[in-house]
Amino acid sequence: MKSVRPKKFLGQHFLKDLSVARAIADTVDACPDLPILEVGPGMGVLTQYLLTKERPLKVAEIDFESVAYLREHFPQLEAGIVEDDFLKMHLEHLFDGGAFVLTGNYPYNISSQIFFKMLDYRHLIPCCTGMIQKEVAERLAAGPGSKTYGILSVLVQLWYDVEYLFTVEPGVFNPPPKVKSAVIRMTRNKVEDCGCDERLLRRVVKTAFNQRRKMMRGSLKPLFAQLNSELGVGRDHSEFLAQPLLTRRPEQLSVSEFVALTNAVAAEMAR
């Protein structure tokens, strides 16, 4: 089998530049000794350098052609090839329930979903590295006040320290994507308890940024309407919505302020 044709519906952009592949592989050195899971290995351009790390390696690949190519060209990896959809995998079964590093040249069409899954398995993933669209990387690393600061920024930075490592030009891929790419590294911080109801936090953050042009008081009105409906109450929240914090826009609130706001919303609904 000579090569695999990139499939648009899978968001495949195969990396061609070996120096970039080597640099991505080296990002896992920040978490030595841990096994590695690579998502979307394609034809193994990154895989070949991860194999030199001399630690357990598994690759998750949904494309049957890529799986066949990997089996033919990387026979030493046979037991580590997982033919499955990463988004549907039970990650606690991968390395006997142990922690691992997540990495890859991530499929562009599911990169955000990959990081939401990482959050669900943060107890198993102390380090996540890899290549994504530059826009998504900037969003992950952005701080309050930035136009790119958003849902992913808040929810990921609550649990991880994010590093934007370097930018990658479109020409190193087949086919070249229409946007630039970037390599990032996310390392678990010391937070063990987010300090609020995490489900409610996600709702507050998503509701706020879905209407990011509005002040927070305008963004939260539909959330309170939903919460009232769920609890079967007709409570008035105008006094709560009048507080000064809610005259700001969502991109102006820090992660800790979103946590505090979530606790305030919970207290408001409990009164």
Task: Describe the model.
With 271 residues, the protein is an alpha/beta fold. It has ten helices and nine strands. The strands form two sheets. It has a seven-stranded mixed β-sheet.
List key phrases describing it.
single chain, 271 residues, alpha/beta, Rossmann fold, Helicase, Ruva Protein, domain 3, 2 domains, seven-stranded mixed β-sheet, two-stranded antiparallel ribbon, 10 helices, elongated
The assigned structural class equals: alpha/beta
Low-pLDDT residue spans: none
- Strands ordered across the widest β-sheet: 4-3-2-5-6-9-7
Q: How does the major sheet shape up?
A: 7 strands, mixed
The overall pLDDT, averaged over residues, is 94
What is the gist of this entry?
With 271 residues, the chain is α/β, with parallel strands linked by helices.
Fold blueprint:
Elements: E1 14-15, H1 18-26, E2 36-39, H2 47-50, E3 57-61, H3 64-73, E4 81-83, E5 101-103, H4 111-120, E6 127-133, H5 134-141, H6 151-157, E7 160-168, E8 173-174, E9 181-188, H7 198-210, H8 216-231, H9 238-241, H10 255-270
Parallel strand pairs: 2-3, 2-5, 3-4, 5-6
Antiparallel strand pairs: 1-8, 6-9, 7-9
